[in-house]
Amino acid sequence: CEFDFGRIFLPHLLPASDGDTKTMTFLQEVVDILLAYIVESFDRETKVIDFHYPNQLLQMNNWELQDEPATLDDILISCRATLKYAIKTAHPRYFNQLSTGLDMVGLAADWLTSTANTNMFTYEVAPVFVLLEYVTLKKMRDIIGWQDGRGDGIFSPGGAISNMYAMLLARFKMFPEVKEKGMSSVPRLAAFTSEHVICLTHFFHFSIKKGAAALGIGTESVICIKADESGKLIPADLERRILEAKQKGFVPFFVSATAGTTVYGAFDPLIAISDICRKYGVWMHVDGAWGGSLLMSRKHRWKLDGVERANSVTWNPHKMMSVPLQCSALLVREEGLMQNCNQMHACYLFQQDKHYDLSYDTGDKALQCGRHVDIFKLWLMWRAKGTIGFEAQIDKCLELSEYLYNKIKDREGYEMVFNGKPQHTNVCFWYLPPGIRYMEDTEERKKRLHKVAPVIKARMMEYGTTMVSYQPQGDKVNFFRMVISNPAATFEDIDFLIEEIERLGQDL
Question: N or C: which end of the chain has fewer CB within 10 A?
């Protein structure tokens, strides 16, 4: 049966008494739009982005909300327009973010959870999903190296929230009275994370400072530890700063080590950091949002040696494992701590006389009440790939990054930001156009080089051919930070990127 969607409105769809056929036809139209977009996203002949400036995009379409309902034909037009101007994050030549690619099984799982449209706070409203979260978190803890996968954990809205959960737990573990009495009941606290030693700029994930601000600890209580040239935290400086903080009257309570820094992809020396944390009774957290997935690889997991000593670990499968956004896990070694820290005994949700095992009502250990079902995407993909499938995917991305590094490290017109092979898929480099390639290393040369990456990036977006991130780092002028997490990328895509950078920057 065909319908003229120009005459049909939302009230004609289910639950209207005769809305089943109209609903199925409408949803099929939507699915056709989505499937066409998916196929297009993987086509290298299509643009990564059809870029328009904000004022242009506002003028090209009517995005304003109206009092009167639109027809379903208008709704379908809006769906097409939205995807037309969206970034194709599945495109094999999209390298802009840490989370790229589109997994078909993960996408199917996302559709299923949206259809189920339930909440993760109790077993009674999300029985299967709650069990899958339990099973998957246990498996992830086992991979970290905690005995029999014991401990606790939760899926949160992202790595920043997972890191804040860790800070919250660390504070509660040391000062449980803070839950009722607030920060006035505890001494001045100090948290520690890494800083780039040469540039004297913050090298850690910004979430540590955000967490300190949100929890009332204060951003000035986050103490930055020196890192070496490749971005790894220096343990000796950590111990020095802990002792210095204690002498000033602070109580060190939290150290955030990083497994895969955002810019350089560096892995902190976790064993040495753990020894220091144990010596001074400080909670050790590992922010493995970017690099935690390397635990799935027998070839690369050595980079996280010592992670099993941590009190908590952040691990984002929506990055290197290509699980659709969002999917971030906080894993905690001590069982029951999250519940004690966060529970408020809301009687309308967490009744104590239910007819099943109440340990599966996980909502009271979360800061949120409503919690999205993030687990099914990861669980279903794991079933489809197996651990060996994720391992092959991760190994491939690291192989591609090594290929890029080897191609440009000695290539004319390229200069690496730091010496040595990258530990993760981050490859940081400058492209030097012919016009400044042979200039002396003066301030004028730095000023000109600083403008190169932004101009090339703007041209990339205007042509729509590829996207790569760039940034300055302290006294280092703008450089490209290439990251690879899309399993659809190939060696030919890396070759294309190099050629495209040279094509777009030849005249600078």
Answer: N
